[in-house]
Write a structure and sequence with these properties.
By secondary structure, the protein is an alpha/beta fold. The chain contains 10 helices and 8 strands. It has an 8-stranded mixed sheet, with helices on both faces. Helix 1 packs antiparallel against helix 7, helix 3 crosses helix 4 and helix 5 runs antiparallel to helix 6.
């Protein structure tokens, strides 16, 4: 269904749209694409799961699109109504073309407020991966009464900074993105661990050919605000992540958050999650959200 606006698939190059649609078609549950109009532009939200189940919002990593959840949605949608948006202004079908520009994290918080209200969601479980985890954490701090439980998968810039070596390796891709550079970058970070070929095509073509807004760079939240966050939180870390030192991330989360559980996903890289070792990822997520039911 397309709600309140026409489809955005024509705005992205045909090759990217075909790759995106191929991964979405492989989702093991029926999915309904919904376009939601906001002041910042129209957002594509892929929706699945029982209509009367508790809501779960999934926020993907930068450049990964909502299709990245293909290995997780079957189990998550068994117990939740899943809402998986493409991040506003990022790769995917959520161009930032509305009357209000997206300039700061507060704009993304307003955007999420609009999405939840559109679907009649008073409060939801929220799960974010990578850059999406930073947005999810920001939203829990922004609207604590709307986030029941919070899951963060290898979160960027939430409790510790990113490694300079990773940022240096990513620089050519950031300056002049090409499909080849995107593939090479995530293959380097994965360090030989498996990556799904179909999803890699979405990532590579999206990096090279899809118009995107300037990414909102959010600083780490102040320690004082994190210490006041009482929302139950799960932090899942990739054992072989090259993005950050996972022990520093774990230490920061355990020191600052009052109600946090941390776990390491073995045989996984940052760019391999949440697909790599998805059975363990799904077990952890399902158990965590079930504890709040």
């Amino acid at each position: 269904m397309v709600d309140d606006a026409h489809s955005h698939s024509t705005r992205a190059p045909a090759s990217f749209s075909a790759a995106y649609d191929a991964v979405l078609a492989a989702w093991p549950v029926p999915v309904e694409p919904v376009d939601v109009r906001t002041d910042f532009g129209t957002t594509r939200v892929n929706v699945c799961g029982p209509a009367d189940a508790p809501p779960l919002v999934l926020l993907p990593g930068g450049g990964t699109t909502s299709t990245v959840w293909y290995a997780n949605v079957a189990e998550l949608a068994a117990t939740h109504r899943v809402y998986a948006p493409d991040i506003l202004g990022d790769v995917g079908h959520s161009p930032a073309e509305g009357p209000r520009p997206v300039k700061k994290l507060a704009d993304l918080m307003d955007w999420l407020d609009t999405l939840l209200s559109h679907f009649g969601i008073d409060a939801a479980d929220v799960c974010g991966y990578s850059y999406g985890a930073r947005i999810a954490l920001g939203y829990a701090l922004h609207a604590r009464d709307r986030v029941r439980r919070l899951a963060l998968i290898d979160p960027n810039n939430c409790f510790a900074g990113m490694k300079p070596g990773y940022l240096l390796h990513a620089l050519p891709l950031l300056i002049r993105p090409t499909a080849a550079r995107a593939r090479a970058h995530i293959a380097w970070e994965a360090g030989g661990l498996p990556l799904d070929a179909a999803w890699q095509e979405v990532y590579a073509l999206g990096a090279a050919r899809t118009p995107r807004a300037k990414v909102v760079m959010a600083r780490r939240p102040p320690a004082g605000r994190l210490r006041e966050l009482t929302v139950p939180t799960l932090v899942l870390l990739a054992r072989h992540s090259k993005v950050h030192d996972i022990e520093r991330v774990r230490a920061g989360a355990e020191e600052l958050l009052p109600d946090v559980e941390c776990a390491v996903i073995e045989n996984a890289s940052h760019h391999g999650l949440p697909m790599s070792n998805s059975e363990k990822v799904n077990r952890r997520l399902s158990a965590f959200f079930a504890a709040g039911a």
